[in-house]
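Notebook entry, structure prediction.
Reason for the run: the old model in the group folder had no record of what sequence produced it. Starting over properly, with the input documented here first.
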Amino acid sequence: MVVQVCCGAGHTMALTHQGDVYAWGRGFEGQLGLGEVQVAASPRCVSTIREPCIQIAAGSRHSAAVAASGVAFTWGDGLCGQLGLGRCTKKSVPTLVEGLSHLVEVACGTNHTVFLDTDGAIHSCGLAARGQPFAASSMGARKAFKPQRFVLPKPHGSVVEVCASG
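New structure, fully documented this time:
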């Protein structure tokens, strides 16, 4: 049974009750997570994620998933750092985002990715030139290539959901 679907600029993903991720559509930047497959006319299992996932997100040309263990995987176009892998890169298969744990949610915008952990902390990476959040320690930089903790102004309650758009 499918429990979640999300759409990028030209690709779609689905998450099943068992935690399997499926992708189809255009994947010229690797956003399908199917290796060298650039176009999939029907859903194909993203089998390189070897653990069940609890949440998925699709940006314009990149994708992300949160595993049941609380870690995140990203893949696709990382030109602006939106994969959170520490460098400008493109990945055609899901790749573990180092330094994040206890995650419960992920959201992808056009050129940025936002993660939410069990403590309600927000972490983000990618292009911040248009006001997408990232840490004050990176102020002046246009891109955050690794997820940066984003602090909400006080007072605030617990963050329960993150969203991003392009």
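Summary: The mean pLDDT is 88.
The old model has been moved to the deprecated folder.
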